[in-house]
Amino acid sequence: xxxxxxxxxxxxxxxxxxxxxxxxxxxxxxxxxxxxxxxxxxxxxxxxxxxxxxxxxxxxxxxxxxxxxxxxxxxxxxxxxxxxxxxxxxxxxxxxxxxxxxxxxxxxxxxxxxxxxxxxxxxxxxxxxxxxxxxxxxxxxxxxxx
Length: 146
What we know:
By secondary structure, the protein is of the alpha+beta class. Helix content is 27%, strand content 38%. Strand 8 (107-109) and strand 9 form a beta hairpin.
């Protein structure tokens, strides 16, 4: 009986376990913050915009991160009547949770991470939590080149 109870305790922990990737000055090349119109993205924003924190990894980190993304399990996230396939990978900044206001829009590829954050100041705070030395000086407008 004790063995069965022990196994039942272990099952949820295994099922809920997820992979984590930590961002820091050690593994990122640069960051950008881009202001995007919220219309069409189904994001509730007081001023009609949200911000994307784009974190680009250093070249020697991209292969490892790409493999981690590919190996991570996929889940479906539903929001406001729409579903999307999402890689279940937790992104942290210096071992603390990285702000992400819209988890369904988390962008992951071998080059880096895109995180949706509603307020501009919150996007700058998130960038600072990753690497204070690489916080961008300005916000880019969607479609603007640097």
